Amino acid sequence: MLSLDALPERQGHVTSKAHFVPEQFQCERATLPGVISSRACVLYGARWVLAPVREVLHLIHGPVGCAYYSSQVRGKNYPVYSTALKEEDVVFGGQQKLRRAIGEALRLQPAARGVLVYTTCAAGLIGEDVETVCREASLQFGRPVVPVNCPGFGGKSQGTGHDVAARVLLEHFIARGPAGPVLENTLNILGEFDVQGDLQEIEQLLSELGLNVLCAVSGRAAVENLALARRAALNIVHCRRTGELLARLLEERYGISYLKGSFFGIAETAKTLKAVGRFFNREDACGHIEEKVAETWRRVAPYLPQLAGKRVAMFFGASRIGSMARAFQELGMEIVFAGAQCGSREDYREAGRCIAGGDTLLVDDASVQELGEFLRRCRPHLMVGGTREKFLAHKLGIPYLVFPQQNTPYAGFNGFVNLAREAAATINAPVWQMLRPARPPDLVILSARRWAGAGPGRRPSSSLSGREGPGAACIPPDPPFG
Ligand code: SF4
User: Fold this and answer.
1) Domains in the chain: ranges and CATH
2) Nearest atom (ligand 1) to Cα of 70
């Protein structure tokens, strides 16, 4: 049995699938002070959703570092403007600077159809009246200038920023669209960001059911199609954390039904397509979906022997853990670790339902020290997560796949084949065989001692010691404690 020692204050954030009780799991809580958490701030959460919105300018009202930090989203650089607040602005106020910046940005981009003004910690702390400045600028420039109230300290995690963004999209983009009858055979996909062509894969599958995607929020979101979104017949929630609130608001206000579904993995993709087909009375399409499923299994067959029994650690958005766990398990892989920066109870409940193994660790808000220690103990053949954790995994000699992905779509049936191919290629890359067992980074040794909180001479018990695998080959035995 894997040891689950943790700092006393963090123990409720760490459990195994076998001991997982959703009501007792400590997620949705503030980060423990002093822990170097991977969580992002509220500003970044708003940017995560709004950054891809086209035809409008994005202006960060705060120090230039906040703009730099929030310009790269899902590995892509989005152009942003910044008021670059400095010390004197914090003392004397930055509203004049904001007015000038809005005018200057619109002069540089005269075709822009509006401006989104994001607040930051500095703007929030000094009490900038951003709403009034935006209202006056809207009148002056004849275009919407929309305040996005998302100071970094405004919530426990980026999740608050996702909610702020949903309300901005509803009130300032979707609600401004003209009313009209429901457009037949149309739908929106909420919480879909079109990473490396995911949206095209999903759209192709839906078009085979005779359906059109009006708006993907926010992988394909611009002023025109956001204005049409209120006339769709159905909303699909693809990412619960970024899409469900907007779906609920659209149902309340415009009566648009929504269903939650995933396009990651064969079974999940087929299940979602069938649910959508039932909604639009396309039950006759089921046979076509089953043919696609059979064809996909034929295409992934060459990779299955390379992946069978391989251990996977996952660390990314909690809403995706359940569906991605199913996808990797379909490939015959074992989930040994599943964590997220900030997950809701519902996210972890779903993860618990989807993950097969009882020993699988579930961790919310893991710090880099904890991640390093978990990886040392779980010894996965593959880690899947964001770009930040990649370097830690590489230092430990663990093959790493970035998700949201860097190269090809993983959504839909074609995406599943891509996932299988890239997982097999990553695990079997010759570079892992060339690594020599090396002393682990000091960071991990220190954290292992401290994190375990053990007395002198104590070692964690682990049934995983001595397991083999590309990653394990490079990971030295656990260092002595005390
Ligand atoms: S908004 Fe606050 S927490 Fe976010 S990047 Fe700026 S200073 Fe940091």
Assistant:
1) 8-35+302-434 (3.40.50.1980), 42-155 (3.40.50.1980), 186-260 (3.40.50.1980)
2) 5
